[in-house]
Amino acid sequence: MSPRFLVLLAAILPVAFSSALAQTIPPPFVLIARGATADHSAAIGNDGTLWTWGSDGTGTTHYSPFQIGTDTHWQRVAVGGDHTLAVRSDGTLWAWGSNYYGQIGDGGDTGLSSRSSPVQIGSGSTWQAVAAGKSHSIAIKSDGSLWAWGYNFYGQLGVGSQTQANTPVPVGTDHDWVAIAAGDSHTLALKSDGSAWAWGRNEDYQVGDDSSANRWSPVKVWGSATNWTSIAAGGYHSAGIRSDGSLWTWGRNDKGQLGGGTTNSPVPRHIGSDTDWLTVAAGGDHCVALKTGGSLWAWGSNAYGQLGDGTYITRGSPVAIGTATNWQAIAAGTAHSHGMRSDGSLWSWGYNFSGQLAAGSQPVSLDAELGHQTVIAAAAGFTHSLAVKSDGTLWTWGSNSDGQLGDGTLTNRSSAVQVGSSSDWVSVTASSNRSLALKSNGTLWAWGDNSNRALGDGNQTDRISPVQIGSATTWRAIAAGPTHSVALRSDGTLWVWGNNVHGQLGDGTQTTRPSPIQLSGNNWTAVAAGQWHTLALKSDGTLWAWGLNDSGQLGDGTGFTTMRQLSPVQVGTATDWSAIGAGDLHSIALKTNGTLWTWGHNGAGQLGTTGAAYRYSPFQVGSASNWQSIAAGLSHCVALKRDGTLWGWGSDLHGQLTLNNRNYFNLPQQLSSAPGWTLVPGGTGWTHTLALRGGRLWGFGSNASGQLPGGDMGRAVPRRSMPARGAQSVSLPGPSAAIGVPVTLAATASSGLPVSYSLNGPATLNGNTLTRAGAGEIRLDAWQSGNDSDWLPSAIATVVDDPPLTPLQQWKLSEIGDANAADGDDADGDGLVNLAEYGLVLPPASPSVAPAVTRAGYADGERLRIFVQRDPARNDVTIDVLGADGPEGPWTSLATSAQGAPFSGPGYVTGDDAGPGVKTVEVRDTVRVSEARRRFMRVVVVRAGL
User: Which residue has the higher pLDDT, 648 or 701?
Assistant: First the structure.
């Protein structure tokens, strides 16, 4: 080997911090309300203000509490399917929302009419209590009389007929009613003598009179009990508590919502033997209840985590929720629940599609889920997620209906599980219900749904564990559409397999391929797979597309006139494309000048532009030229700018953009105020998005299948919604640890909570004492995981510590050849061998320093630069300046001076010319410092003929 001598010089990025977004804080609540069949909630503050959130029935949705007017005299509130009732302290009754069946009660138009703000119902001022069903309303006046209005098909008004009413009408003539509850289409009420009454729909025995006949007038709930103290009406079931503290349920029991037994019950059924039940609330298919000691319990359907026990498992009997004993009030909705603690704080759990949890939208840290370790790759499928940690292990979570998690089961996972025991995974991708991944040895693996033969293993059998695809060891990039797969090998060849009904494989046919087949060419550099189309780049910067083109997603200008292309067609004539992404029916790409381009379907604003439903050719998005990386989801796009800010546009219906509006956005919006984001290939799924910040994984969007634990679409444990938990940060002073000298770490969290640490590199960590064991880089992470009461989770700070090496140490890290002993001598003892001094014009016996490396400001971003002195008169030495992401390479040539010639190459070279005399040459890296955690440059000196 020719002797060559290397200078290793590194720049380290600044400390990265993680935080979450805070939200507006209403006052502490004193009363909460939730309808069993509603998608919105309401609460009254301790100052008498009224707040609502969720879908209001008029087409508007609020994802955080929204104050109703400025009045401070609200006293009672009830939530129905799409309407709300409230009573002020002066005894007046107010209502708003949908009035399709007259459930508002103001006598106005019904049908499609609605009320977007509170309207007074009549002129009475003696209203005392209200309850709201799916489409009917119930109220009690201070004289004990009972009134009803709205939908009455099942007799739920209790007026003896099925006649609908659009103003309050009396229910009988009794004046001893004291409490009411309204379910989907049935009603419960208590009288002052402790008797329980019910009426309305009874097909599932929810009336509780030992029959299944609908009741148009109040009938006594079965039995002679006159000691009922609390009642609750769910979707199609009912519950109550008696004065002896016993719990009773009746009605439908298909989801365990009765808390006992396995069948529906036409009469009240005693649940357990406990006698300390205080109050109960009934949701769509579940119940929550409080005991006198302040503990919280739940049972029934748990598909969306609405029980709050940390699982998605249906419970047929009451289970305790957490250990807190200061619960004071509860409310149960269709598939979510609320609780209020004695300090007035509001807690929420379960489904959150319409903002029912009052949490707004915010990035969710998955750091604790992944053991506070750096993530090097991640992918988002339809309803599952994958991540590769820095230790090479692979972890998955979410839906597992087809084995897409790869853990050898079909069990859904709401927490991350490791896939096998391998520690050599390097990249992942996912689509629909399948996953693909690469190992460091270049092998390709796949698992999950194989109905379209898109796993590539030659058959149509689903796989619940990873299987190797073929025997090749040269795979380097993969992409997956819902029914097909695309991959590149290191030799530049392109391979495709899976469904081909629209020509998405590009092999000139519409034939499904169960195993990888090669397309022509060996100069492919990047691939992207959409729903039914594929994009690819070649090394000459050209862009190619094939497959379905019904929305112009191929970008070849033909649109509807050419419904599909069965072979690759070039997109325009440009030769400066640098990155691509493919969504459902749209495409996105970057050019080398940092501009952003889109084409295809724009129904959800996914093209980032207004005024066009389709674009058949690439269209520039805005005028910015500092875009760095891109990703495309089902109907949304996410992009990163060179300043580390994260942007998105398109559909936010599932919170995948965290813009707190569940709407469409047709112009790029900044998704987080925090800098330092990194996009991951395959990180945009159908309804959720994954991205990295400081090497740690964050997610936005749906958690309906556990694909985003703690995400905005659902929670399986109670989490405080109001007042909002505070955002926190972590301060981590750099350790600057000398070898063998213990250093006490002193990270602090703004929350004041204890900070934990983790370490990678040549050092040991004992509690908060770090001791460096040798030279080299160490990565120290400090985090504070938060708590449910006060602080948001997983604030993180990271320090990469690599003390500067002396010139002698730098050269000891070099590959010093021994073919010529004279060249390898160090006569002046300065740490630089003779050949280096000769080539770099550092005369022996004079102070000599290794070439200096610094950061450099450049027009389009910060880069590293290195200064080299070259003597053009010396024509027997070649000097190379190289760049790499790590000390082991792979190294890329930035500039070369071959035997006295001027420096040239893809790097940015200044100060050099062909004239006589020693030249100081500045070489700037081609990669911006902000694009990588670390960036290395080195100088290689070789004498001709060696």
Answer: 648
- Nearest Cα neighbor of 855 from 752, 930, 786, 909 is 930
Provide the 8-state DSSP code for 739. B
Longest dimension (CA), the chain: 115
The reply to whether omega before 890 is within 30° of 0 (cis) is yes
Quote the CA–CA distance of 554 and 413 in Å, as a whole number.
37
Average pLDDT over residues 470-475: 96
Q: What angle do CA 935, 632, 472 make, to 5 degrees?
A: 65
CA dist list (Å): 1 to 47, 817, 819, 890, 942: 82, 7, 8, 18, 11
Please give the Cα distance from 384 to 822 (Å, whole number). 62
What distance, in Å, lies between the first and last C-alpha atoms of the chain?
8
Confidence of residue 574 (pLDDT cuts 50, 70, 90): very high
Give the residue from 36, 336, 278 showing the smallest Cα distance to 156: 36
pLDDT at 663 over 90: no
**Given the structure tokens 């300046």, which residue do they identify?**
881
Cis peptide leading into 807, omega within 30 of 0?
Answer: no
Alpha carbon separation from 631 to 46, 570, 586, 890 (Å, rounded)? 46, 21, 11, 26
Residue keyed to tokens 């049908």: 111
Q: Are 354 and 55 in contact (CB under 8 A)?
A: yes
- What are the residues whose beta carbons fall under 8 Å from the beta carbon of 400, sequence distance 6 or more? 384, 407, 409, 410, 411, 412, 413
Sequence letter at residue 177:
W
Which distant-in-sequence residues (6+ apart) come within 8 Å of 826 by Cβ?
Answer: 832, 833, 834
Task: Say how far apart CA 588 and CA 644 lie, in whole Å.
Answer: 19
Q: Indicate the average pLDDT of the chain.
A: 85
Handedness of CA 681, 430, 335, 213 (dihedral sign): positive
User: Worst-scoring range by mean pLDDT, 318-327, 593-602, 723-732?
Assistant: 723-732
The 8-class DSSP code of residue 837 comes to: H
d(CA 94, CA 118): 6
- pTM, 2 dp: 0.70
Give me the phi and psi of 836, to 5 degrees please. Answer: -65, -45
pLDDT in tens, 769-783: 999 887 677 888 888
* Of residues 497, 494, 454, 456, the one with CA closest to residue 474: 494
User: Most confidently modeled of 575-579, 669-673, 760-764?
Assistant: 575-579
Tokens found for residue 467: 């299987």
Please state the separation of Cα 781 from the chain's center in Å.
Answer: 22
Core vs surface per residue 233-271: b (16+ CB within 10 A) or e: bbbbbbbbbbeeebbbbbbbbbbbbbbbeeebbbebbeb
Give the angle 403-406-409 at the CA atoms, nearest 5°: 55
Q: b or e along 446-466 (b: 16 or more beta carbons within 10 Å of the residue's beta carbon)?
A: bbbbbbbbbbbbeeeebbbeb
Tokens of 403: 């084995």
Strands (E), 133-194: 136-141, 146-150, 165-170, 177-182, 186-191
Residues of the chain with pLDDT > 70: what percent?
A: 85
What single DSSP character describes residue 145? -
Q: Give per-residue pLDDT as tens, 857-886.
A: 555 566 777 777 777 766 777 788 888 776
The tens digit of pLDDT for each residue in 436-472 reads: 999 999 999 999 999 999 999 999 999 999 999 999 9
197 within 8 A of 190, measured Cβ to Cβ: yes
Q: What span, in angstroms and rounded, lies between the C-alpha atoms of 61 and 663?
A: 10
